[in-house]
Amino acid sequence: MSVVDLRSDTVTRPTPAMLEAMLQAPVGDDVLGDDPSVIALEAESAQITGKADGVFTPSGTMANQIAIRCWTRPGDEVLVEAGAHPFHYESGGPAAISGVTLRPVEGERGILDPETTWAAVKGGDPWVAPTTLLCVEDTANAGGGSVYPLQTLDDLGEGARARNLHTHLDGARLFNGVVASGDTAARRCRPFESVTFCLSKGLGAPAGSVLCGPESFIQEARRIRKMLGGAMRQAGYLAGAGRHALAHHIERLAEDHRRARALYEGLRTAGWAADSPETNMVYVSGTDMHTTAKQLSERQILAIPVSATRLRLVTHLDVDDEGVDRTIAAFEALR
Ligand SMILES: Cc1ncc(COP(=O)(O)O)c(C=O)c1O
């Protein structure tokens, strides 16, 4: 019996067509600036997000860390939602790499409320750490894969500008939000000075993210990427996968969203408590989700318990309808 791997949308293997695109990708030396596939990927990414320029990074973590480093000075404070990836899962990078503190602001399903956010802004007095950057995560992973209303993105961007804060969008799953909302990526990115999106999540590439923003910012981002050891040589093979993902794997995210909904409905019918999904994540609640995860794995269903009482299921390119049905059947058997 094959494994249904719902741990994350990062577990996908490249499709045969993506592997072929990688094989065919022309490459150079990206550290010397002459890898044609990377140059093309960066230009396409800048265009799709409506920014002036882009830089290819090995991971979303590095892209976020570079953005934080570029927009801040040591001693600054950065506002994030309380469940934000850089706050929980980037290994203390903001403190180590940029010398900044992160200030978590409690949102609703991972979505920041502008007024609550502005109440956390500090500055002016010499004894406080000045707030200089707002990082927004869309879709919000720990919030359940929730999608920001466009108006809230606009309000956050406008309010940040009025308070002289820089703005960065962690769009690790930007395109899930794009497909769910029907807005273009450029429109959703417009309120933010910089944005990163991951090629290696729902888009199905084996690695890589792109950080986009103004030209001078990207120039500095390239220096920080080099400093962190993130400049790669024949990176065009990976960029080839990324270009294929942008061309062929965006619209199909709607299938992942449909399957997440089917999972949710099946689990609810089976008597499990779950949060209604907005994109490709279903968070299921129970008394002992570590044991549930173990019992699921015995049935070849993999999922990650994010706490003792919550378990996350993520649909992606390598989960089909049969996998969804098997998962529902496994949960039914455990009830
Ligand atoms: C919202 C968010 N931002 C950033 C990242 C980091 O991406 P990477 O795993 O490529 O470092 C992740 C990874 O899951 C994420 O969910």
Task: Tell me about this structure.
This protein is of the alpha/beta class. 43% of the residues lie in helices and 17% in strands. It has a 7-stranded mixed sheet with strand order 2-8-7-6-5-3-4, with helices on both faces. A 4-stranded antiparallel sheet has the order 9-10-13-12. Strands 1-11 form a two-stranded parallel sheet. The longest helix is centred in the C-terminal third of the chain and has 17 residues. The radius of gyration is 20 Å and the shape is globular. Pyridoxal-5'-phosphate binds next to helix 3.
Helical content class:
40-55%
Briefly note the structural class of the backbone.
alpha/beta
Q: What is the terminal-to-terminal distance?
A: 22 Å
What is the N-to-C order of secondary-structure elements (H for helix, E for strand)? EHHEHEHHEHEHEHHEEHHHEEHEEEH
General shape: globular
Main beta-sheet strand count, sense and barrel state: 7 strands, mixed
Instruction: Specify Rg, calculated over alpha carbons.
Output: 20 Å
Q: Numbering strands along the chain, what is their spatial order in the largest sheet?
A: 2-8-7-6-5-3-4
Small molecules in complex? pyridoxal-5'-phosphate
The number of strands is 13
Residue fraction in strands:
15-25%
Number of helices: 14
The average pLDDT score comes to 98
- Low-confidence segments, given as residue ranges, are none
